[in-house]
Design brief:
The complex is a heterodimer of chains A (507) and B (252). Chain A is of the alpha/beta class and 507 residues long. Chain A is 24% helix and 33% strand. Chain A has helices spanning 2-23, 47-56, 61-75, 116-124, 167-172, 180-186, 188-194, 205-213, 454-462, 467-478, 480-483, 488-501; strands at residues 38-40, 99-101, 151-157, 160-164, 176-179, 218-222, 231-237, 248-253, 258-266, 273-276, 279-284, 289-297, 308-319, 325-332, 337-340, 343-346, 352-361, 366-375, 381-390, 395-404, 412-421, 427-436, 442-451. In chain A, the strands form three sheets. In chain A, strands 5, 6, 8, 10, 11, 13, 15, 16, 18, 20 and 22 form an eleven-stranded mixed beta sheet that branches. In chain A, α2 runs antiparallel to α3 (61-75) and α3 packs antiparallel against α8. The two termini of chain A are 41 Å apart. With 252 residues, chain B is of the alpha/beta class. In chain B, a hairpin with a 2-residue loop joins β11 (217-222) and β12 (225-230). Chain B is globular, with a radius of gyration of 18 Å. Classes of the chains: A alpha/beta (507), B alpha/beta (252).
Chain lengths: 507, 252
Amino acid sequence: MAGLDELNVKEGVEEETVEAVKSLAGTYKYGWETEIEMEYAPKGVNPDIVRLISEKNDEPEWMTEWRLEAFARWEKLDEPSWALLNYPEIDFQDQYYYARPKSMEEKPKSLDEVDPKLLATYEKLGIPLKEQMILAGVEGAEDMPAEGRKVAVDAVFDSVSVGTTFQAELKKAGVIFCSISEAIKEHPELVKKYLGSVVPVSDNYYATLNSAVFSDGSFVYIPPNTRCPMELSTYFRINAENTGQFERTLIIADKGSYVSYLEGCTAPQRDTAQLHAAVVEIIIEEDAEVKYSTVQNWFPGDEEGKGGIYNFVTKRADCRGDRSKVMWTQVETGSAVTWKYPSCILRGAESQGEFYSIAITNNYQQADTGTKMVHLGRDTKSRIVSKGISAGKAQNTYRGLVSMHPKAKNSRNYTQCDSLLIGDKCGAHTVPYIEVKNNSSRVEHEATTSKVDEEQMFYCRQRGMDEEEAVALIVNGFAKEVLQALPMEFAMEAQQLVAISLEGSVG
Amino acid sequence: MLKINNLHVKLEEEDKQILKGVDLEVPAGKVHAIMGPNGSGKSTLSYVLSGRDGYEVTAGDATLDGEELLDMEPEERAAAGLFLAFQYPVEIPGVGNMTFLRTAVNAQRKARGEEEMSAADFLKFIRAKAKDLKIDADMLKRPVNVGFSGGEKKRNEILQMAMLEPKMCILDETDSGLDVDAMKLVSEGVNALRDEGRAFLVITHYQRLLDHIKPDVVHIMAAGRIVKSGGPELALEVENNGYADILAEIDA
């Protein structure tokens, strides 16, 4: 009966989730604001602000120049309008591009020097900055290793990284995990070599802006033949009002290495929209593998569509080496507007890219998200599984590109794109772009659209579940393939988020 | 246990009266069967009692242990002890059968203010019940009713009934789509649940199910009303002569 026992752990987890969901009263759990004295740069963006950000981070000259070039380029660009998104024009001069807690003016040397209020903020978010993350309360936990699982965390609060945990242990393995501002100072040779090499400064409007004004973010380097001893995690939080968050993440997995990286995001509840434009670059060398998981829960705006985060994100992984591998998993439940296409450049022979996505939109949320799989090398493989869920008056678009270049002989892609509608005022759209420029490659695309069925709802309710429990169960079932791709702690959190973000979508 | 008084029901969307004054009382410990021709309102009765959308009660009421049933939400009726074994069990892709059942069991327990069943107890309980119904580990793991054969679906309904331990069990055409062996398994499952504190309402088109699940009382339903009630012999009469004779007798 080993099968049943193993199953029980999983069943237990899901049960926990329903439990946790029921105990959560508010609709947006992370919508509080931390009262911390902030230091702001003046509103708006210009070369002086760019210089100021660079100076505040104590950056070398080459970095300042890099930023200024990006800014000059950005000024000549127009905001793209091809996405199926509808939002009021963003006044890029009406944003703060730099905000940081005053207590951070002198960078703390260890977590002990961090403002306790900040740490309390992270505690509220449920992030164990100091402690090991133990899978408390999970049924079957006795089968887990006794010491629990370790996750190293880098926390970014508004514009500034406030602390990275487990530094010493990571150092022993040769892993570098720090804020990008620190990396620019401490590891300039790596930053110079890789920054902008996957997402060039000229890539797109938001990425170019990010290149000019990014204030912090995370940096990871995994040395050759090293399996990162723990999962790495970054938590982003936008706290200050009218502040844009522009973080920059750079991950380098050297030959034969492996790392699993988690990213979580929250922001307080506000009436006015806030801007978020991040760039994530991943470089993967020969035989290396990177798993990048995101649970994005920025404030989605209220039920009338007021406020929320405008989320314009450029994420790209470059599988440079042969047999390198990347897996993107994203659970997008937050943000008023999401514009995000985590992509894979499959350059090395036999390299592999995978993209698993759940995008949930409720009320007036809009999401235009998907991926790009660019097959350049021979025998490359990619797989896309996208689950879009729309409720309320939300619009959800999957947009994906699969491109097989002439040299990408014998390459394969499989795309599965499912949409689920709750109610009759929401929309789901699928926009696949497929280019095949050789005759030995194969591309498959499957798409379905379905509705949460009244029969299913009644069946669940007849067995005793209330409407919200029933919807959560059905939607979690719909998204199961993607949830399974997440690391366990994230899978639990994601299941809760699925339930929370669909509250009020029925009845 | 279950008392139905003068129940009148029409379709919500159109002006069509389906139930035209149903009176029925099923005491605890008893098995009542309802037979009747197609379109007589048998399934509608089961849906109205369990609270499915799409029906409007125009007169009458129904109580479960004295509690007004028709005012409650479907999940409240379930927690109060009402169970419907569906004629067409619904598929829920991606949701494991066990997850579904545990969520249901604990939702009901919580609604009744009882403690949730621990994982270990649940597992022990479901294994025992599943074994009786010849439901293997694989079937417990698979998504609810997805890819199940007709017989598997019905056995799964009885498994749910056994796990939820309801007071009032309504079986809607549970025999439809079953071969002889499956019918035997399902009937044994139902008979094992017969108990002094539990009542059954078995809705069926054919007498054969009643060979396995012996009813105390048989009702004949026609045109939205119960037109004749009697002992098990009434079912045999239907089997031998069809409904026509009984209906003619009533019309006359």
